[in-house]
Amino acid sequence: MPYYVTTPIYYVNGTPHIGHAYTTIAADILVRHQRQRGQETFFLTGVDEHADKVARVAEQRGLSPREYTDGIVGTWQELPRRLNASIDFFIRTSDEGHARFVQDFLQRVYDNGDVYEGVYAGWYCVGCEEFKSEDELVDGLCPIHHTKPDWLEEKNYFFRLSAYQERLLQLYDERADFVLPHFRANEARSFIAGGLRDFSISRATQTWGIPIPWDQDQVAYVWADALVNYLSALTYARNGDDLRSAYWPAVRHLLGKDILRFHCVYWPALLLSAGYEPPHQLFVHGWLSLDDRKISKSLGNVIDPLDMIDVYGADAVRFWAARSVSFGQDGNVAPDSVHERYERELGNDLGNLLSRTTAMIARYGDGTLSVAGESRIAGGLEALATRVAAAIDVYDITGALEEIWEIVRGLNRHVELHKPWELAKDASKTEELSRVLYELADGLRVVAVALYAYVPETSTRILEALGQPPDVSWEQVAPGRTRAVTGIEAAPPLFPRVDAPTAAA
Ligand code: MSP
Fold this sequence. Notes:
Elements: E1 3-6, E2 10-11, H1 18-36, E3 41-48, H2 52-60, H3 65-83, E4 89-92, H4 96-111, E5 115-125, E6 130-132, E7 150-159, H5 165-174, E8 179-180, H6 182-193, E9 199-200, E10 202-203, E11 211-212, E12 215-220, H7 222-226, H8 229-236, H9 244-247, E13 251-256, H10 260-274, E14 281-285, E15 288-290, E16 293-294, H11 305-312, H12 314-324, E17 331-332, H13 337-365, H14 378-393, H15 397-418, H16 420-423, H17 430-451, H18 456-465
Parallel strand pairs: 1-3, 1-13, 2-3, 3-4, 8-14, 13-14, 15-17
Antiparallel strand pairs: 5-6, 5-7, 7-9, 10-12, 11-12, 15-16
Helix pairs in contact: 2-3, 4-8, 5-6, 6-10, 11-12, 12-13, 13-17, 14-15, 14-17, 15-17, 17-18
The structure holds 5'-O-[(L-methionyl)-sulphamoyl]adenosine.
């Protein structure tokens, strides 16, 4: 089955913060890894423009919503570029191809008899772009945004979500891995089992959005428009080529836990209604927090990923995102933890290992690496490919990275254990010396290929420094494939020292 991965499409009412970068990085790690394994892949990300909160920001700036989104979209397109995320398409919900598809999709839901007219009255949180029931509010405030929701009352079109309860339960019962981690599947399943309320899929008082095909006076509710992006993009991302037959339903949606219901309940129901297969799988990750508060624009505690990249580079930010919080769980992040991991793990564990290894090959072997007999580290390297792949297949990007790092630590121990600088002093130990150097080079090459999905630039630099071809296909994660070469020079530091930005900056 091909591998199609998506991130949520991000609201453009502000600029990107580290929480948005987080999902994009995770998706890129997954998709690059699958490409290494020869999978056919497609990676989609983009922006969600037709939100009420977007229209409000535009109004505050004296712009039309379209002028505003056209102005800010560049910053969002820059995010995957600067993160070195290898996306195949960047969708804007204001794309004409998307609007056309949404209209067709909603018409299908309507024709299927799943739409009726009704009046909705309730508390609407514009931060969530969602109605909240009284018991969800805490002291009358949205528990996520800590703001008072608006009282909204209007005539809307409703989607008969309640009619899909049985089919959704069946879906969850038949497909144990439909939603991962499993505790999130349980959460979604109990929400469904608790009874589903129909929800409104249109807005009568807004004009910023996609007109409802059977009633041009209303526009699609932002979620009834946004979710459809995962399918619409496939119809126009490649001019004249409909990618739906190749990639639907082979899709894996990545999302934060804040939008679980929309993805794990509403979206499969809408798809079934419109006559499409539900997605293959959804992975719900946790929140990054700063001082125990979710990092979010509305709470004002954001970390700018582009600033972080300016200082540490994309690879370090990607590494930190995969490593500092176990993917799937919530976690607190301290802004200086990037600095700490940069120095200790990337700089010392990995960077120094490469510098030392290449310097020793240059110095003791005149830059020549020769293939030596029986490797003492082959066992660990042998198992790595399977272990990493198995972890990544269940979205455990943190666990897979730890497997690789275990090898990195092992190679450092190997240096300390065999002390090549002492072997070099003894003419009778030349063979032993070149054996150790080959083991280190071979281990580093395997690590470089295994790490490619996480730190693509670093991976390439390691292979280059070792005089190895830039082949990162997954079969290369195996011992003994390092070629004999000449001309190896002491490599410059992979992660040169940087000054930690001061709090004021
Ligand atoms: N526009 C909707 C999604 C529509 S998808 C059809 C939306 N946008 S958002 O801009 O609020 O981005 C939400 C996503 O950004 C989350 O699901 C998550 O993937 C990511 N994150 C935003 N803040 C985050 C954290 N503090 N921590 C981790 N991820 C976070 O909701």
